[in-house]
């Protein structure tokens, strides 16, 4: 077999993106869209009709797909709600399919461990849709770090400011939720919109090309400025990896302006700078300057190419897996354990208003606060910010389970 047949669970929202990426790659000859799950036929009548005309098989439930597509579907993609990831991925592998699972792989470390165990039991693989690990710029940067050109990595830091409005939080039933229908979600910037950039840092300092680094400790602060959501929208994390590297992460969805992700890597032999455009500049202590970008390769498409290559046996290892995503999930779970609670920002520090058909929430001076914390490599409470609350460092080296329902003194 020299072609890989994909089925996508869903037809709208990010499922539409999966469909688009697969269709873009069909001309390369290795990938084909074979099926789509459409549960709401009334809402999606026109789309269903369109795809049927293209010869794509339509399924009306996930179970329908699992039971009836084994003869012509190789990989199932799951651009579904966070709390469904673990159960759906495991079920697909047990039915004999390989899986492309959207990030994050799951909300809790114990769910990720179940996915890893299911891979071992079934012999099937589960690729994780952390598309930035598939980026040419990130992978080249990792090669340079692995070669020792930057020396020992002492610190790695990232900041990002992406405003999100009410429409973002009303797009589905779980957006902005910590818990949904009894399931842990943790839908904040660190675990969803800006998750890639926390994961990037853990990946870049991992011990080998397709490994991420395990963490020793985590200290984090989680805040909520949007008054109508449950989870955090403004966060800062400091962590220490088992190799001693310090990791710093600063993000918010409650700003007026936008600042795309920006990362600085400090080693004993030089410094590297990476930004959202994927432009990377490295200054070595010996005077050498290295510059590169993503070579025009869209990392979203690479996610699907790599899955196809793995299925066809062209490559031995996936780029993003449950195993190398596990440190990311530990970082998020550890952040929640460290913070102990999401702190609501007092209303006198925020502004909520309508503008250009959007309902906005802005936390006063958060742009400047993040800039200062990023430069000083400290958490918000270390700056003496009025609304900030100091938290404790926790050990996560042998982290096995996250349960926010347990009393912390139990």
In short:
GO terms for molecular function: nucleotide binding. The chain has 410 residues and is of the alpha/beta class.
What does the model show?
This protein is α/β, with parallel strands linked by helices and 410 residues long. It has 2 domains: 4-131, NAD(P)-binding Rossmann-like Domain (Rossmann fold), CATH 3.40.50; 135-294 and 317-395, Dihydrodipicolinate Reductase, domain 2. Helix content is 30%, strand content 26%. It is built from 11 helices and 20 strands. It has helices spanning 13-25, 45-53, 62-68, 85-94, 109-122, 136-146, 166-169, 195-204, 299-312, 322-339, 366-376; strands at residues 4-9, 31-37, 57-59, 75-78, 98-101, 126-128, 153-161, 179-180, 183-184, 215-224, 234-241, 246-252, 259-267, 270-275, 280-284, 289-292, 343-344, 350-355, 358-363, 394-395. Strands 7, 10, 11, 12, 13, 14, 15, 16, 17 and 20 form a 10-stranded mixed beta sheet that branches. It has a 6-stranded parallel beta sheet with strand order 3-2-1-4-5-6, sandwiched between helices. Helix 2 links the parallel strand 2 (31-37) and strand 3 (57-59). Helix 8 (195-204) packs across helix 10 (322-339). The longest helix has 18 residues, at 322-339. The radius of gyration is 21 Å and the shape is globular. The mean pLDDT is 95.
């Amino acid at each position: 077999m020299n072609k890989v047949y994909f089925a996508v669970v869903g037809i709208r929202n990010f499922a539409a993106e999966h469909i688009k990426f697969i269709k873009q790659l069909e001309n390369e000859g290795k990938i084909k869209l074979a099926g789509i799950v459409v549960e709401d036929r009334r809402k999606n009548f026109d789309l269903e009709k369109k795809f049927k005309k293209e010869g794509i098989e339509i399924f009306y439930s996930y179970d329908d797909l699992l039971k009836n597509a084994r003869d012509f579907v190789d990989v199932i993609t799951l651009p579904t709600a966070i709390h469904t990831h673990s159960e759906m991925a495991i079920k697909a592998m047990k039915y004999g399919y390989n899986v492309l699972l959207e990030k994050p792989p799951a909300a809790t470390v114990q769910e990720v461990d179940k996915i890893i165990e299911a891979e071992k039991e079934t012999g099937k693989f589960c690729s994780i849709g952390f598309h930035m690990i598939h980026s040419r710029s990130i992978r080249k940067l990792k090669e340079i770090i692995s070669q020792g050109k930057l020396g020992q990595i002492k610190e790695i830091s990232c900041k990002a400011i992406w405003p999100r409005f009410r429409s973002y939080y009303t797009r589905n039933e779980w957006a902005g939720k910590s818990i949904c229908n009894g399931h842990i979600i943790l839908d904040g910037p660190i675990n969803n919109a800006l998750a890639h950039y926390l994961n990037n840092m853990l990946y870049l300092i991992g011990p080998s090309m397709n490994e991420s680094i395990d963490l020793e400790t985590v200290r984090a602060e989680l805040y909520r400025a949007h008054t109508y959501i449950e989870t955090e929208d403004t966060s800062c994390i400091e962590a220490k990896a088992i190799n001693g590297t310090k990791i710093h992460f600063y993000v918010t969805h409650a700003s007026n302006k936008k600042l795309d992700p920006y990362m600085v890597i400090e080693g004993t032999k030089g410094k590297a700078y990476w930004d959202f455009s994927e432009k990377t500049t490295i200054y070595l202590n010996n005077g050498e300057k290295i510059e590169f970008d993503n070579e025009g390769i869209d990392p979203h498409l690479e996610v699907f190419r790599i899955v196809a290559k793995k299925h066809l046996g062209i490559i031995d290892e996936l780029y993003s897996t449950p195993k190398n995503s596990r440190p990311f999930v530990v970082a998020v779970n550890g952040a929640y354990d460290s913070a102990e609670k999401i702190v609501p920002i007092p209303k006198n520090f925020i502004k909520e208003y309508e503008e250009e058909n959007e309902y906005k929430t802005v936390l006063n001076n958060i742009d400047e606060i993040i800039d200062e914390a990023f430069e000083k490599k400290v958490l918000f409470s270390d700056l003496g910010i009025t609304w900030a609350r100091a938290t404790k460092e926790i050990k996560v080296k042998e982290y096995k389970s996250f349960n926010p329902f347990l009393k912390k003194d139990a």
